């Protein structure tokens, strides 16, 4: 089944009426990623670290992420349930939990689990989840992340990647993570000229 963004949005909206919207969304995202090549050709090209809003409403947000080689998005929460799937490369997720006594000095969190998802695979997180995402490959990776609410309007936290201390996450900080990756890519490109 070839990827159809309009259909994905319609089906996600329908899934919200389901008795377990997150489970229904997980199922339909997995189905939507069955033909990864068609997902790739339907969305913006994956040659820069970037993300785009594919859909946004009060109850639902669909984001498209493109991860640079070896890129890490440091620990953050969503305060919304989330279902994430990959259509190119891999995403390695580390799950974190708030901790009074972290093994990392004054850190607010500690790692409690991990998952790695490849092409066509989908992962679910509850609204309390804190995760970091790494592209473990030397190529670009890309996926679709769906949230059970308005991502932009929901207060979220990020954790400093070195101190692991909580700060408020805003759009500017989020964008800076992608900008740094693209600066590195530009630098590497320049050096190879
Ligand atoms: Fe996330």
UniProtKB/TrEMBL annotation:
Entry-linked SUPFAM superfamilies: RmlC-like cupins (SSF51182)
Name of protein: Cysteine dioxygenase
Organism annotation: Grimontia kaedaensis
Source organism phylogeny: Bacteria, Pseudomonadati, Pseudomonadota, Gammaproteobacteria, Vibrionales
């Amino acid at each position: 089944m070839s990827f159809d963004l309009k259909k994905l949005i319609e089906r996600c909206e329908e899934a919200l009426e389901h008795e377990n919207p997150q489970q229904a969304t997980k199922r339909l995202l997995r189905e939507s990623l069955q033909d990864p090549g068609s997902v790739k050709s339907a969305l913006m090209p994956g040659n820069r670290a970037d993300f785009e809003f594919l859909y946004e409403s009060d109850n639902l947000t669909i984001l498209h992420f493109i991860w640079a080689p070896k890129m890490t998005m440091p620990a953050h929460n969503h305060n919304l349930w989330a279902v994430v799937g990959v259509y190119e490369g891999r995403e390695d997720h580390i799950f974190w939990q708030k901790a009074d006594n972290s093994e990392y000095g004054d850190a607010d969190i500690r790692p409690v689990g991990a998952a790695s998802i490849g092409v066509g695979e989908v992962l679910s997180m509850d609204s309390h989840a804190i995760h970091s995402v790494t592209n473990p490959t030397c190529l670009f990776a890309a996926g679709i992340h769906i949230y059970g609410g308005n991502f932009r309007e929901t207060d979220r936290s990020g954790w400093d990647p070195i101190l692991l201390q909580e700060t408020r996450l805003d759009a500017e900080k989020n964008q800076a993570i992608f900008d740094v990756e693209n600066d590195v890519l530009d630098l590497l490109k320049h050096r190879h000229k």
